[in-house]
Amino acid sequence: MAGPTTHSGGTSGAAGMTVRFVTGIVGVLLFIVICMLPPVPFLVALELVMAVGILEAVTAYRALTRSPVQTVIAWSALIYPVLVAAASHDPALHFAAVVAPAAVVMALLEFGGRSADSATLPPGARRFYGVLLNIWLGGTFAGMAALYAMPHVPLNEKLGTPGGWLLLLASLCVTAVDTAAFLVGKKWGRRLMAPKLSPKKTWEGAAAGFVAGILAGLGIGLAMHVPAVVGISFGFCAGFLGQCGDLFESLLKRTANVKDFGSIVVGHGGILDRLDSLMFTAPACALLFLLLVQR
User: Fold this and answer.
1) What DSSP letter does each residue of the chain carry, written as one string?
2) Which residues contact 280 (CB under 8 A, 6 or more apart)?
3) Average pLDDT of span 54-67
4) Mean pLDDT score across all residues of the chain
């Protein structure tokens, strides 16, 4: 989940910054509300968000959607979060938490195995476009559902709310990473990280984001009565994988020759632009929580 300030969007200047900041804050608050929903309303909300994301991806790669079969395969990704929710605390959660990182590797091998300046996707991506979108979007959103479903902690009992605290912790870590990376990169950034993919990202900003993620994970995690090792691990995932997710989606947008996946989030782009970092972070956090706490 991107923070209140981000590079994406179609506005510029002081007015554009204000719009991005306001919509970013609103987005964070809305996500907090979603995380606090009971299981069924949460699943409905997640499915709606995911449906918008799939539509954005299919539209961006519309040149590859001529096959109805591939389009159906892409949309069938909606089933993954439902399966995770149905499995609840069963071992299927372990599968859901593992499948997303594996899916990311597959997608990187396919989409990333080409020059960022190339005008065409490799043949494999064209043939299995729907499968790649299915695994990428299905796996990452299933990771969010898995993190929501993790049995947790005294804070849930004290506040009388259903799950979602761990997903909220991961999203707040991502927000801290994104905000620190933007602010530090804008003021002190000198060395560009990936100029062809994301011209404004710098190593200085990335380092600041990484540190901010760990500090946020530790501090917010302790406030949620989460073990310190879990909070630090979540911050590490946000600081490293979250920024990788941002770059990965920049690569996908470059292959599709689009600036943003959509425009539904004013000043930020689309749903996938908004959740790029969290989509990589949440599944890894779910896996780490299973290994560190639920084993």
Assistant:
1) ---SS-S-SS--HHHHHHHHHHHHHHHHHHHHHHHTS-HHHHHHHHHHHHHHHHHHHHHHTGGG---HHHHHHHHGGGHHHHHHHHHTTSTHHHHHHHHHHHHHHHHHHHHSSS-TT-SS--HHHHHTHHHHHHHHHHHHHHHHHHHHHS---HHHHHHT--S-HHHHHHHHHHHHHHHHHHHHHHHH--SEEETTTEEEEEHHHHHHHHHHHHHHHHHHHHHTT--HHHHHHHHHHIIIIIHHHHHHHHHHHHHHT-S-S-SSBTTTBSHHHHHHHHHHHHHHHHHHHHHHT--
2) 104, 140, 241, 242, 244, 245, 248
3) 78
4) 79
Q: Which residues of 129-158 are buried (b: 16+ CB within 10 A; e: fewer)?
A: bbbbbbbbbbbbbbbbbbbbbbebbeebee
Q: At what angle do helices 165-188 and 228-237 cross, to 10 degrees?
A: 50
Tens-place pLDDT, residues 2-57: 444 444 444 446 666 777 778 778 888 898 899 888 888 999 999 999 999 999 98
